[in-house]
Amino acid sequence: MDYLDLPRNRQMNKIKNIGVLTSGGDSPGMNAAIRAVVRGSIYYDIEVTGFLRGYEGLINNDFIPMDRKSVANIIQRGGTILKTARSEAFRTVEGRQKAYENLKANGIDALVVIGGDGTFTGANVFSKEFDFPIVGLPGTIDNDLVGTDFTIGYDSAINTVVDAVDRIRDTAESHDRLFIVEVMGRDSGLIALRSGIGVGAEAIMIPEANMNADDILHKLEHSRKDKSSKIIIVAEGDDTGGAFKVGEILQEKYPHYDTKVSVLGHIQRGGKPTCMDRVLASRLGVVAVEGLIQGESGVMVGQINREIVFTPFDHAIKHINAEKVSSKWLKLIDILSF
Amino acid sequence: MDYLDLPRNRQMNKIKNIGVLTSGGDSPGMNAAIRAVVRGSIYYDIEVTGFLRGYEGLINNDFIPMDRKSVANIIQRGGTILKTARSEAFRTVEGRQKAYENLKANGIDALVVIGGDGTFTGANVFSKEFDFPIVGLPGTIDNDLVGTDFTIGYDSAINTVVDAVDRIRDTAESHDRLFIVEVMGRDSGLIALRSGIGVGAEAIMIPEANMNADDILHKLEHSRKDKSSKIIIVAEGDDTGGAFKVGEILQEKYPHYDTKVSVLGHIQRGGKPTCMDRVLASRLGVVAVEGLIQGESGVMVGQINREIVFTPFDHAIKHINAEKVSSKWLKLIDILSF
Amino acid sequence: MDYLDLPRNRQMNKIKNIGVLTSGGDSPGMNAAIRAVVRGSIYYDIEVTGFLRGYEGLINNDFIPMDRKSVANIIQRGGTILKTARSEAFRTVEGRQKAYENLKANGIDALVVIGGDGTFTGANVFSKEFDFPIVGLPGTIDNDLVGTDFTIGYDSAINTVVDAVDRIRDTAESHDRLFIVEVMGRDSGLIALRSGIGVGAEAIMIPEANMNADDILHKLEHSRKDKSSKIIIVAEGDDTGGAFKVGEILQEKYPHYDTKVSVLGHIQRGGKPTCMDRVLASRLGVVAVEGLIQGESGVMVGQINREIVFTPFDHAIKHINAEKVSSKWLKLIDILSF
Amino acid sequence: MDYLDLPRNRQMNKIKNIGVLTSGGDSPGMNAAIRAVVRGSIYYDIEVTGFLRGYEGLINNDFIPMDRKSVANIIQRGGTILKTARSEAFRTVEGRQKAYENLKANGIDALVVIGGDGTFTGANVFSKEFDFPIVGLPGTIDNDLVGTDFTIGYDSAINTVVDAVDRIRDTAESHDRLFIVEVMGRDSGLIALRSGIGVGAEAIMIPEANMNADDILHKLEHSRKDKSSKIIIVAEGDDTGGAFKVGEILQEKYPHYDTKVSVLGHIQRGGKPTCMDRVLASRLGVVAVEGLIQGESGVMVGQINREIVFTPFDHAIKHINAEKVSSKWLKLIDILSF
């Protein structure tokens, strides 16, 4: 597929009005993506309609027409101006039928959906059910999609974690403390992995590896004694059961340690997107429109090795992070905290 | 007392070597305070010795001589380079006796202690017991000391809270959610109060006021329906029992709300100090030295209405925040969230 | 005057619709102030109208009705949603006449103007000319108004400077460089003064003091040699002629120094307001409305020693910073960089 | 070459002591790189020596032995703890001879040099001249090296630019202004390119493209009139002659615009490194050591498509950015500002 050099008069295509929505958990950069979809559509002389609260907006016919002005000065804002939600109704045939009828009634002939695996699962069913053109944009802090090196929001989230843990390091260092810090990632340890390296963590506990509390203990006992503060990063989806559980085990077995637990929580979803997330969202957003123009559907647009790649929805959501969490990254943490 | 215009040859005073330490919970700006004590002492031709881990350093004779270089480039750093701790031993007569002997042996003839109420309680006893000159600097994020409008670290902490809750607002707004956010302040609602105004909170729950979960419910039910996200700030010392308890109550009575809880935790102690905290620490740090030169002891140096004020330790720790938490501030929150 | 505890039924007052505008150079916290004026007015059952681009909006009848929603989620935003401008037309009788007619035609019976000395000069004339109730809010990064300890935006601006100079310190320290950094302040050295202390500057050059390049040279030559990086903060209004001029002089007389110049410029006007600026703007904004209700006019509302103070416009703009720039602050810089 | 899974007993190699230095312009992440080289060496049982101020340290025999503790808590710091400089002496045969003798005398048998093209040019000559093993790490904010997708510091620098221009956008938007913002990049427009997309710039002017002031004028005149603020990003190396020159031309031809110029300057070199820069520096730093163990020399270690790549110094410095600045990126800016 061609991209970013389509002729503007290529508009022999039948797409007149693209609907755009954000769905699932929000991530920094979603606004930059919306902006790119809107500006990209206008550039190719296509109208754009924003649906509110994800698939709920389709079902409830809750939408706003978008123009250049609607997306002015939002590239730097966290959250999503289109709001987002998880939709139970869209899982039912009736819900999707209603959504389809609203789309037809409003003259929308294609959709760009911005979200993660739940979003794409719904898009996949809907697209096939009604033969409706949909292209997806990977908007999630978790980076747990196949078909893109990075998802929109991941870079921002790990920088938020790094900023928060740098603060914790200040106080940990002052008090010679051990901190167990829980970061987001229900099925994926990718946030924990990169931010763990970024903050100089002693160890990380993630679903993809099987380090347990005993391993941590062993590591702490055999690590150099000259380090005053120690930080363990735990992914919320880790098998041990989260930071509080880990803290409890360590405290019990290791009572001479001054152990504290911190769960970073929802601060990880908000804040200004980083430059990388803005650039990624801007590029993929325009290409999503160009993909629809060229007949793509049922695919997510991503970036692999800096190249644009389209991946079918059912493959994108496969949660194969093996490649992304190779044992070499874990080894790197070992070497650096040695 | 004169300050910031003492003649440098005023050194008819008997102080030759000032010990400095940080004690209790750390706060941003402690390093700026240490720097000011060191540089101020050197300016007046006095030697300075840094004791590590608060009163533990006195007892264990754990110290480092400080020169200009020791405090270069630390004004912007969170935490404390002298480290901090709470000392059980210093509560015993034996502990304090040991500390006194070490001070004498090392030729230290005055102390500057940086910390909060616990720190000053210890200093008060020690100073009287051994007739030892001590001046205190208010270093705590809680702002709960009498004798200063602001403590060193408070401004930084509320800005950290504001930054974190701004992020939460992004996601709350995207999802139309109600967030209960817990901030530090075991005995004092001052962090909650100012940061609550700063983030545009719907309500705050603090030890000094008696708003309970029912009041919050009432407020939420009667507030305008057009606001999509709502944020309640809870001080950890609030009577209701913290953010999780509040969240539980609200969730139960108000099941149609999408309620989330976030406990900000130790990120509030770390990070770069704000300009105000650096300036406050710099000014008070130098004045603490000048106070000792002029014979002050058993007092905390603070700033009230921009003027330097010395307050006896036993008055400084009285936890009278009445003035600081006037009902007018609570009214302001009501008006702004009306 | 009472404030923050007026009865809501006090509405025997004749004010039905308050106009609000921002004028002159923008400052962080102006949006928080607008929000407080709007919410405060609504609380007291008064309508609010926002005029665009300062006095230009009055003259061109360019306005928008404001409700709670108009100011939702703006407390954290830099700039001003009402936009701002300097108005030549408002300096003419005709211009002001036009403005007055528009106000009458729209049923506006009082104004809150947010800005600095230029804004208040215009308000002062207009208020007297047409006997029109106006209360001013001090919105400027310069902190150069009499009648308030701090202006809205000053704290944010000095933190922006501190953040920028911390970055410069990183590279200055790595290269053993001398940096001359110019900060805003055409008539006032207050930004330079506080941020200079905050960044640990070697010296500051401000309009209120008469340190010249030779003094700086002398200071650098006699200061300790053990410090690798040196930073001089210059207010743009300093007599020597700005950072480039100072850099030139130092470079020539002191060729063995690796001297660099940095002019921070307009980044100082933008960015999120700090917590202090948000709280100040929130408080003063509500009180401005309450002042109008109680018959105040021709005054700026400020905060001195944490108390609300009303100051006549012509006194507020007198540029007497003597108090704010006492020699003790300059002495403090000397001691800390000794 | 293998990496991150070498056996630790592989120490049949002859390297006993690695020297490490930073040279040329500093960049955020250099400290993270130093830390990784030190920890990686220790892990493989190699001693490490830090030379101060780049090649000057080699020539002046100015060094410090490094242990784990020397690099504790520096991963988050901007600048370089080893300091940096440009060395004239190292360009002479005598200088390099001196350096070589010092290295031999101190038992250093390999070097890791962290820097940009100047650094690698020197390393290349030295390595060949004395058959001395050297591996380079790409530490520069410019991202202008062949052999790595990103250099250490680039991601941090573009985020600093984005943060600064976001602030400028606030004030530009409030005043309906046109800003010309100059960013670093003497030979390369890569900082301008990505940050330009990140801030939603109307246009960028870079050495690699030939957009001149007239093109900008044309663009501004034909762009939509509904946008109140406009931002042009200019790379310092652009042919037109920098932001002030561009501002002058635009102001003259386009007098009705309120045009302002801002040169971001050295703030771009400092500040905390982003997570991406920390991870990149950590990974490449360890691999540099492993490369030396396995006999690599005269090469820079980089990362292309997430894979480790070694590139000979003379190729790395070739300044071929064609690939990195494709016309598609410029088209993207056009579409987004359309």
Automatic annotation (TrEMBL), chains A, B, C, D:
ADP binds at R35, A36, V37, V38, R39, R169, G200, A201, E202, K225, K227, S228, S229. Its EC number is 2.7.1.11. GO terms for molecular function: 6-phosphofructokinase activity; AMP binding; ATP binding; fructose-6-phosphate binding; identical protein binding; metal ion binding; monosaccharide binding. The active site is at D142 (proton acceptor). ATP binds at G25, R86, S87, G116, D117, G118, T119. The keyword Plastid does not apply. Pathway: Carbohydrate degradation; glycolysis; D-glyceraldehyde 3-phosphate and glycerone phosphate from D-glucose: step 3/4. Keywords: Allosteric enzyme, ATP-binding, Cytoplasm, Glycolysis, Kinase, Magnesium, Metal-binding, Nucleotide-binding, Transferase. Pfam families: PFK. Mg(2+) binds at D117. Catalyzes the phosphorylation of D-fructose 6-phosphate to fructose 1,6-bisphosphate by ATP, the first committing step of glycolysis. This is ATP-dependent 6-phosphofructokinase. It comes from Pedobacter suwonensis. The gene is pfkA.
